[in-house]
Amino acid sequence: MALESNEKPNQPIDKFESMLKTDDVYFFDADDFEDIIHHYLNNGRIALAKKAIKIGLRQHPVSVELKLLEVEVLVFENQLDLAEHYLDALQVLDGNNEEIYIQRANIYSKKDNHEAAVALLQKALNLSENSFDIHSLLGMEYLFMDDFKLAKESFMYCVAFDQQDYSSLYNVIYCFELLEDYDGAIRYLNDYLNKNPYCEMAWHQLGKLYFAKAKYPEALTSFDFAIISDDTFIGAYFEKGKVLERMGKYNEAIENYEATIQMEDPTSHAYLRIGKCHEQLGNDELAKYHYYHTVHEDPMLDKGWLAFTDFYFRRKNYDKALSYINKALNIDGENPNYWNKCAQINEALGKFDYADFAYKQSVELGNYDLTTWLGWAHVAKCNHDLPGALHILAQGEEFYPESAEIKYKIAGFQLETNDLINARISLIDALHLSFGKLQLFYDEFPQYAEMAWVRNIVTEVERKL
Fold first, then answer.
1. What are the ranges of the TPR repeats (predicted)?
2. Nearest Cα residue to 266 out of 233, 293, 240, 245
3. What is the pTM of this model?
4. Helix (H, G, I), strand (E, B) or coil at 367
5. How far apart are CA 391 and CA 418, in angstroms?
6. Superfamily of domain 368-465 in the CATH hierarchy
């Protein structure tokens, strides 16, 4: 039997959940069902939302709003054809309902037809009195289309409508960054903060922008205001620590990193930064202590293992460095940075075969840095494989066709193989690319520095430059 609402809890959600635990059936207004369903959808409880939709439509079979919520769930579950079928029927009943166009736009968006989604959202915009949510959806569609200018304008509208819409505010700054208009982002945030001076998120974003532009005093001030606005804002303490670290104020940086650890469970990133600061201060034991905690907190954080490895590498303790990079490789053998560091360590140990293998692995996994090609070629030379070294440099040249470093090294190796014609061509090309880097050639191949043949080429090119 149906019970009156005053016989059970007054709150619709409590009342609904109470009903589910019994065999009783309670009656709800359609508006109550909408509130219940929205509550479950917002909290990701899809099964309960579907149950509420089913019972709601049983009690209110002609409710367009409940049927639209059913469509929303179908779209979420990718039952797009069925959702479109329901929308066709709803459009006959209520052709001017903007939510129908919004759900059709969601379907097109899921099908990667973002232009059609935008067109439908524009129609919804013409029908809607409250267009705030539609502008937010438009902004997302423009992002999918890489139209960052229109996306930015849509999200700006949302922020103008609701100053507390931090999600849209973040997206506005994101669009500025994608447009590489950092000064515009700074101006926008400063204008926003003139109206909302205690918005910690805006201060935080402003500080990050100043940091990116190397305006460290301004960044520091911004993070200080973020902390004043919310003294539990961990992200502001962490970013402030990064600024202080960049400014060489390592003890102050450590204080801010430690503040994040005291306020919340320690993070590997905080331990890592503290370790880096202690290393800069010459506190080797404290640096090692924090690097240990870095990898203990997150064994998958490559920067932690690399910090430990670099710590010993810089101190020429190559055996210890090798043991740590091998631990890293045991955890993640697909990390090109690990293999690159492994190659450098083996090279320093004179284990050129291992170094050659490690460089090869690093490149195959996607590390195409200039230093990688140069280092690998040097290892091949140490293995008495000059043809292999030249082949490696030829591959590197495909990625860095304007690299004087590669050209000078090619010229040197060609001289060592007595390929004078190609050596002359390579040396002339290198000199044209960067005459100022000639010393690199002399440093690596001093046996040719006083060679008349080389001197003549250098003089000839210098005269023409």
1. 98-131, 200-233, 234-267, 302-335
2. 293
3. 0.76
4. coil
5. 16
6. Tetratricopeptide repeat domain (1.25.40.10)
